[in-house]
Every structure is written in structure tokens, then in C-alpha cells.
Amino acid sequence: MEEKQRGAVLGKYEVGKLVGCGAFAKVYRGRDTETGQSVAIKVVSKQRLNKGGLNGAHVKREIAIMHRLRHPYIVRLSEVLATKSKIFFVMEFAKGGELFAKVSKGRFSEDLSRRYFHQLISAVGYCHSRGVFHRDLKPENLLLDDKLDLKISDFGLSALADQIRPDGLLHTLCGTPAYVAPEVLAKKGYDGAKIDVWSCGVILFVLNAGYLPFNDHNLMVMYRKIYKGEFRIPKWTSPDLRRLLARLLDTNPLSRITIEDIIRDPWFRQGYDDRMSKFHLEDSDMKLPANELRMNAFHIISGSPGFNLSGLFSGKFDRVERFVSGWTAASVLEKLEEMAAAENLTVACKEAWGMKIQGEGGSFAMVVEINQLTDELVMIEVRQRQRAGGDIWSDTLRPFLVEIVLKPDETVAGLQTTHYQEGASSLRDVNTTTT
Fold first, then answer.
1. Where ATP is bound, by residue (predicted)?
2. What is the per-residue pLDDT for 122?
3. CATH label of the domain that carries residue 430
């Protein structure tokens, strides 16, 4: 982050030193100016994403994934902030740093390796139960908190169950070379849960041995070793751990051990608390029906031209505007329906959280979508076009929406009135969402 920007993020967080850097993002240590609590701030550059061939859907997926994961061994996302050029992930700060830094100083004892493997499997099993596959598990993505407990981070390459193709497999090539499963290299599709188990096996090997099972300065030679499963378990490894590692690093995904079988394994069972595999979801963590979803950061971010995440509507519209109001969705739609009838417009379709209004012969078209921001506020998004005769939008419909919009002195919980017109340079206001 440029030096002049390092003072604070949107007045809410003080930004400190750089603690991590990737291809599309940088991670800083920060401090909540209200509570004084330490946080991690991941800064994603939209420009770098676009140059790297990634689009808004990538960020949208990462936000959606982190929002749905609430587990003691997974870094928690607390808030997402957005400006025209950057997206800020505000996350739990892991004071203990990377697990990689610890194991790079020397291998762990079997007992310590088992302790971290317990936590890793607990978190990975939870992710899979929520339809999330990490796809880039490695010690660099495993952080430690102030109690030196594990925290899985970096879900940027993760996949959701809805990305599985009709053949029942995922097909995107991703991951870190030394930790990637052989079936990914085969490029014929793979089971997301199975490749995460393979990566967990590589991590356990590293914790116990202090070095990688598959490693070579020549990448193709290393890939051949992975594909053939050529590795040597160090002599100090106990028989039970040897057997588990062989099952984790089985090159055949069909016979590779599952999370359920790992939990029943004799070596793994030592000191394991079964409550670690039985985390119940909080009510607030349950997925809501689409028409009850609160306005999330990626919906607001989608309003930024050149970084559209939504793709919600087809067809070209002359104007796109958004209004924040204290009216209920039902009241807004009812009033718009009355006004449409007065202007001889037809309500083509109407649902609880949106409607489409049309003029005769396609002379006018308007789509209205309403999202709940808070218990008191809604955001009304209107997309419309007019091809002939008069200006129903400017003369009739827009004045009504302007009249019901939240006034500046009525701002609630830091949310400000947002107007966005397609083709404008940016969202005029910075928006935040707490997850």
C-alpha cells in the first residue's frame, strides 16, 4: 500500500506493517480504531486482478466462502470494504505467524505433529461439510494464533460445490506444485475433497520429517514423482504414522483415505477430542433464501464500472441508479405499481423483492431489485431504458424515488445514500458490510 494510504483504511482501521504479499494482494497488520483490536487487512488490487486474467467472480466467491465459514481453526472474515480501485478484507489477526516459519526451523515431534493435524482435519472436514474445497492447503496458508492454535487462511483458490461439473468433478488447474495431487496433474478432473486430503498428507509429512516428500529443482521431475507416488518416509516415523501417510498419499483418489476414515485411524485417535469434528452452525451462519439475503459487499462492489460482479440483468439499459431508503420493499413496489398503471405501463412480473415494468412495443423498460441493507434500510436498484416519446423516468418515477431516499442527516450505522449511474467513474460513496 502506498505510504500516503497507510495511515488508515476509510477512517476505521489503522494500517501497520506489511506481513504478507501475493500476486494479487498484500496483507497488513492493522488496528480497529474503535476497539483497539488487532486485525489483518488483505488489500486486493482490482487492476492486478484484471491484468492477471481474473474477474470479479473470483473475489465474489472468496467473500462468499469466507462468510459461510465459522470455525475455531479457520481465519474469520469480519468485514469487507471497497473503493474504486481496491477491496479490503478485514480479518482475524493470527499473532503466531505462519506454521511454515515454525517447521522450517526443524521437524516437529509426532505428538506436536498430531496436535496440528487434529486441528487441520477438524477445519478441513468442516469446510467440506459446507461445500467448500480449499485447493491450496500448505504450511504457508496455515497460521497460528496467540495460543499457537491453527488457523487456515487464504481461500482465494477455493471452490464451491456448485462449481462441480456434470461429471461430478472439478477441472480448474490450481494449487502449489509440491502439494498438488496427482489427479490434478492428469487434467481429467478431480474430487475437491480428495485433493485436500492429499495436501493434508503432504503437510503431515512435512511436520514429521521437516522436508517435502516430493521435491526437485526440476519441476517436471517433481511432477513425475508425485504422479508415481515416489517418496521415502523417514526412519524415525512410527509404524502407525507410516501407515497413515501411505493412505493419505495414495495416488489413486478412489482408494485414498477419507476424512471420516482419518478420524478413525489409530494414530490419529490418540488424544483426539470427538467434539472437534462436531461443530454446529450458528443460526446467523445458515444460508438464507435469495430474497432474504442482506446486501453483501460484493453486491455493492459490483456497482463499480469495469469490475462488475453481478451480471444480474441482460440487455442494454440507458441508466442504472441506486437509492437507499427507509421504506419497506413491499411499500416501494406497491407505489411503483400504482405509478406504472397511471402511465399506462405494464408490470410484466413482480416478486417480493423486485419487479419488471414495460411500455407498449418496448418503448420503455425498467427492472427494479430491492436488497435489505439493515433492519431499517433497503437499497433500491433501478435499471431502465426509454426509446420513444417523453421521459417517464425523469418526469415521474425518479422524483418519487428521490423523495423517499434516505436524507444525509438520517444516515444509519454509517451507511450513506448511494447513487450510481452507468458510465460514471466510480461509486461516489465508500460502502461497508459486516459479516
1. 42
2. 95
3. 3.30.310.80
Give residue 220's domain range: 97-283
Indicate which CATH number applies to the domain containing 72.
3.30.200.20
Displacement of CA 128 from its chain's centroid (Å): 15
User: How many domains does one find in the chain?
Assistant: 3
**Pairing state between β 8-9 and 13-21:** antiparallel
Question: Are residues 359 and 241 part of one domain?
Answer: no
Q: What is the pLDDT of residue 375?
A: 64
**Same domain for 36 and 109?**
no
Q: Are residues 240 and 346 in the same domain?
A: no
Which pTM value belongs to this model?
A: 0.65
Residue 106 and residue 70 share a domain: no
CB 76 within 8 A of CB 434: no
**Each residue's pLDDT tens digit, 225-250:** 999 999 999 999 999 999 999 999 99
Contact 323, 400 (CB under 8 A): no
Whether 57 and 104 map to the same domain: the answer is: no
In terms of domains, do 85 and 119 share one?
Answer: no
Element (H, E) at 113: helix 110-129
Half-sphere exposure of 205 (CA within 13 A, CB side): 26
What is the phi-psi region of residue 11: left when phi exceeds 0, alpha when psi lies from -120 to 50, beta otherwise?
left
136 is catalytic: yes
Residue 135 · residue 195 · CB < 8 Å: yes
Q: Which regions of 77-162 does DSSP assign to beta strands (E)?
A: 77-82, 86-92, 97-98, 132-133, 142-144, 150-152, 159-160
Catalytic residue among 136, 154, 191, 265: 136
**256 plus 298 within the same structural domain:** no
Residue numbers in the known binding site for ATP are 42
Rounded distance between C-alpha atoms, residue 323 and residue 266, angstroms? 60
Q: Read off the C-alpha cell for 250.
A: 495414495
pLDDT at 263: 95
Residue 354: phi and psi, rounded to 5, are 180, 170
Q: How confident is the model at residue 293 (pLDDT cuts 50, 70, 90)?
A: very low
In tens, the pLDDT along 161-212 reads 767 777 777 777 777 889 999 999 888 889 999 999 999 999 999 999 999 9
How far is the C-alpha of 401 from the C-alpha of 292, rounded, in Å?
22
Residue at which a domain ends, from 248, 283, 318 = 283
Domain end residue (candidates: 283, 300, 332): 283
> Cβ neighbours of residue 341 under 8 Å, at least 6 residues apart?
none
61-104 residue pLDDT tens: 778 788 778 899 999 988 888 777 788 889 999 999 899 999 98
